């Protein structure tokens, strides 16, 4: 069998724009090609988004030539395999229509030999307008299917199997890209075709594991040898025609795959060969389940890996870039490594984006990141007619077998907020029975198809969800299932609202911030350095976003002066909001076994809920997450009615912790110190200190508590204020001296300084930032980047009372 790919340079044209005939690189998208050819301005800069919206009103064609020789034409079959074709595409080979595709998430495979000729061949792909197709489908519906027009700027996107956020979201630009984002693969088949293989794990009571391997081969009647190599073992099978072939391996003492923070994410290579063909991948051996047992608080929502309950800590994932041609391994790695560096162990792939690339899942396997995998449905209602169900079934029968081989996949989830959306739209909220039946028909089909493809993982109907066949209010019921808690951001409640719920698992909650000054300078012209400027408002997609941020300033802070301080303080506020939630939910563990904030990343430079900016730069929230998600953490809590300090240990083993707790006044005097020495058991939550009743509570506004501890080489710190309304506290202005030596920055404050944040104009981050400085106590942080000169020249140090 021979194999080649039709990647590289194609030509991009449009029948509506005969003046355009430019190169386009595949894998890639049309917007990236137009930008590369300088036919459009950068959509991400200033208010250029509106200037490129004409692209969505055009059809787009791509074409190229490729050579075919006798060895190809004499083959039995010539298969073309296509994935991530976006979206309404018709393929022509040598002028003949060979294939149509209308589902970005499905795989297409066709024998193209009948269309080929010797010598030079042409292939052309015509992409049709999605907006017109959506309108046409909507007009044929037996009853209206509402779509998320508050997010999408293109109507009826829910009727097209395309990344929903391509037409905008409340954090996303509207760029209706088209293209092909995976390699176009051509397989020339003669006598045998090794089509693929899958594995299943059967765990034994003695801790060993049996790995079943199922190999799919298409072959002639001649026997061919299949060889499978795994864990130093090799097995051979003889083919007897086209079929599936099975073998088993027994691993007596498996090296298990563990989530980050719980052990090594060990991976085993496995290789299958047949004739001259070979397929390889890595698999992780792990036993995973989801515990939903009833308990005194309701019902658990607890992932268990290798018999160990996991405290899931992480964030929600959206596509890397609004221009898919910019997706690459280095960007995926940087973002996911930043997640692990912030002590995360779970990522939720959100249902308004895309089933991610193999690069993403391979990195999650490698880094020990569990993946909560939504199916691609979000915030709209969807049809349940036979044609739509057939289309979705086709995508699932491709995606589930593809993804189930990854040890990182922890859960299949039917959708994002679709059951709740029945109550959002006029058409559905006045006829809930009809639309619930419509929802159930699609959701049950999804569950059935996934169950047929993968029996090893749980199916979770929706997020949020109280449980199977439970259509209750998972936005407000914190006793079971997973919860989305948006009362603080969307409803304007105070940060204390986080303290009033005890979720079993909170899979969405968030608070916006503006980009950092370093980020803003990359897309905001200097004349627009104002949070209400045209550029800044164009890069704020939540209609009330800027108003909410500034209104919350008035609740909690003394109002900032100047553009830089506004940006800085918005990130302090965001970090404080999410830290309030995570500190409380960690302090009540094991009641709460999971927290995934919204959101990890941005797909363009924007004001959003992310903790990583579009460039990958860490916001202050991400630095705080590194601390509040740490496996060992000291957290203050008042949920029992008294101020207590909890020592949390997520690890599988006991740990020794040495810490000092200080009561400090605003002038920097340490008025009282408590020494804490503890050995705590695995997976534990231990109260190690409680405020003495003799302590005059009326004095709590005269200072703050600061704890610093050590676990091995890891330093733990936390700061407690008597109120979130920091504007009411008599903090004093501090002067901070800064000394730079190579990549080390030493900070010394003459008085206590809070949310001390370092920022510079080059790629990289600091090993710590947005920290508390005690008076006259030097703290040294390291810059993790290469351009030390630019770091030193551009370094800015912000703090709360600057």
Would you give an account of this structure?
There is one protein chain. Among the domains are: 2-186, Jelly Rolls, CATH 2.60.120; 191-283, Sandwich (Immunoglobulin-like), CATH 2.60.40; 292-310 and 345-484, Glycosidases (TIM Barrel), CATH 3.20.20; 731-802, Immunoglobulins (Immunoglobulin-like), CATH 2.60.40.10. α4 (329-341) runs parallel beside α5 and α6 (386-403) packs parallel to α9. With 802 residues, the protein is of the alpha+beta class. The model has no long low-confidence stretch (mean pLDDT 97). 19% of the residues lie in helices and 34% in strands. It is globular, with a radius of gyration of 28 Å. The longest helix is centred in the C-terminal third of the chain and has 25 residues, at 563-587. Its main location: secreted. It is found in: Secreted. It catalyses: Hydrolysis of terminal, non-reducing beta-D-mannose residues in beta-D-mannosides. It is an enzyme of class 3 (hydrolase).
CATH architecture of the domain at 2-186: Sandwich
The counted number of beta strands is: 49
The rounded Rg comes to 28 Å
Count helical runs. Answer: 15
Mean pLDDT: 97
CATH homology-level superfamily of the domain at 2-186: Galactose-binding domain-like
Q: At the third CATH level, what is the topology name of the domain at 2-186?
A: Jelly Rolls
Strand order of the largest sheet: 3-2-5-11-8-9
Looking at the structure, what is the overall shape?
globular
CATH class call of the domain at 2-186? Mainly Beta
DSSP helix fraction = 10-25%
Low-confidence stretches: none
The largest pleated sheet is described as:
6 strands, antiparallel
Report the structural category: alpha+beta
């Amino acid at each position: 069998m021979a194999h080649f790919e039709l990647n590289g340079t194609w030509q991009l044209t449009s029948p509506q724009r005969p003046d355009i005939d430019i190169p386009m690189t595949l894998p890639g998208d049309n917007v990236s090609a137009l930008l590369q050819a300088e036919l459009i301005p950068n959509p991400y800069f200033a208010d250029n988004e509106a200037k490129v919206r004409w692209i969505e009103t055009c059809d787009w064609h791509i074409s190229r030539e490729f050579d075919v020789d006798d060895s190809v034409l004499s083959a039995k079959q010539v298969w073309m395999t296509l994935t991530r074709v976006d979206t309404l595409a018709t393929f022509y080979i040598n002028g003949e229509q060979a294939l149509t595709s209308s589902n970005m998430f499905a795989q297409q495979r066709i024998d193209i030999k009948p269309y080929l000729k010797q010598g030079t061949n042409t292939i052309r792909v015509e992409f049709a307008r999605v907006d017109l197709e959506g309108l046409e489908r909507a007009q044929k519906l037996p009853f209206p299917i509402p779509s998320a027009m508050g997010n999408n700027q293109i109507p009826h996107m829910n009727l097209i199997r395309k990344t929903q956020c391509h037409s905008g979201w409340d954090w996303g630009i509207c760029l209706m890209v088209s293209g092909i984002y995976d390699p176009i693969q051509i397989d020339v088949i003669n006598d045998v075709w090794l089509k693929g293989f899958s594995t299943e794990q059967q765990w034994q009571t003695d801790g060993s594991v049996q790995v079943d391997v199922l190999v799919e081969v298409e072959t002639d009647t001649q026997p061919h040898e299949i060889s499978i190599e795994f864990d130093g073992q090799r097995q051979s099978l003889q083919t007897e025609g086209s079929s599936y072939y099975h073998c088993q391996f027994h691993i007596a003492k498996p090296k298990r795959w563990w989530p980050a923070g719980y052990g090594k994410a060990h991976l085993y290579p496995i290789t299958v060969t047949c004739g001259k063909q070979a397929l390889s991948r890595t698999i992780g051996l792990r036993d995973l389940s989801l515990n939903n047992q009833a308990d005194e608080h309701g019902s658990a929502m607890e992932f268990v890996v290798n018999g160990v309950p996991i405290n899931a800590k992480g964030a929600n994932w959206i596509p890397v870039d609004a221009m898919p041609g910019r997706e690459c391994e280095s960007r995926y790695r940087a973002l996911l490594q930043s997640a692990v560096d912030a002590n995360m162990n779970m990522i939720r792939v959100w249902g308004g984006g895309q089933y991610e690339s193999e690069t993403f899942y391979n990195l999650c396997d490698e880094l020990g990141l569990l993946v909560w995998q939504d199916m691609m449905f979000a915030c709209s209602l969807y049809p349940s007619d036979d044609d739509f169900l057939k289309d979705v079934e086709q995508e699932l029968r491709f995606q589930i077998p593809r993804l189930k081989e990854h040890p990182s996949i922890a859960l299949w989830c039917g959708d994002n907020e679709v059951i709740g959306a029945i109550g959002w739209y006029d058409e559905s909220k006045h006829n809930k029975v009809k639309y619930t039946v419509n929802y159930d028909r699609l959701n049950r089909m999804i569950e059935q198809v996934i169950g047929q493809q993968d029996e090893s993982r749980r199916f979770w109907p929706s997020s949020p969800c109280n449980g199977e066949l439970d259509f209750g209010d998972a936005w407000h019921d914190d006793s079971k299932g997973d919860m989305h808690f948006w009362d603080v951001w969307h409803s304007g409640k105070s940060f204390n609202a986080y303290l009033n719920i005890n979720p079993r698992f909170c899979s969405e909650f968030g608070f916006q911030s503006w980009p950092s000054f370093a980020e803003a300078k990359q897309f905001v012209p200097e004349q627009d350095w104002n949070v209400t400027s045209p550029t800044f408002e164009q890069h704020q997609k939540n209609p009330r976003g800027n108003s909410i941020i500034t209104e919350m300033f008035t609740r909690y802070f003394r109002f900032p002066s100047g553009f830089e301080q506004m940006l800085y303080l918005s990130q302090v506020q965001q970090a404080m909001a999410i830290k309030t939630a995570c500190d409380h939910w960690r302090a009540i563990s094991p009641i709460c076994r999971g927290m995934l904030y919204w959101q990890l990343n941005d797909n363009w430079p924007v004001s959003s809920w992310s903790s990583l900016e579009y460039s990958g730069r860490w916001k202050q929230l991400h630095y705080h997450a590194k601390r509040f998600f740490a496996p060992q953490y000291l957290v203050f809590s008042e949920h029992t009615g008294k101020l207590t300090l909890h020592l949390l240990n997520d690890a599988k083993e006991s740990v020794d912790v040495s810490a000092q707790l200080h009561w400090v006044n605003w002038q920097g005097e340490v008025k009282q110190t408590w020494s804490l020495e503890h050995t705590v058991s695995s997976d534990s939550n231990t109260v190690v200190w409680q405020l003495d009743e003799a302590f005059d509570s009326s004095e709590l506004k005269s200072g703050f508590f600061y704890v610093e501890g050590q676990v091995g080489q890891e330093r733990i710190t936390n700061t407690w204020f008597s109120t979130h309304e920091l504007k009411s506290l008599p903090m004093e202005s501090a002067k901070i001296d800064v000394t730079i030596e190579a990549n080390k920055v030493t900070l010394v404050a003459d008085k206590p300084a809070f949310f001390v944040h370092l920022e510079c104009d080059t790629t990289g981050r600091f090993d710590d930032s947005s920290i508390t400085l005690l008076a006259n106590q030097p703290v040294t942080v390291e810059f993790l980047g290469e351009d030390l000169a630019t770091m030193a020249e551009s370094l800015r140090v912000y703090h709360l009372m600057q």
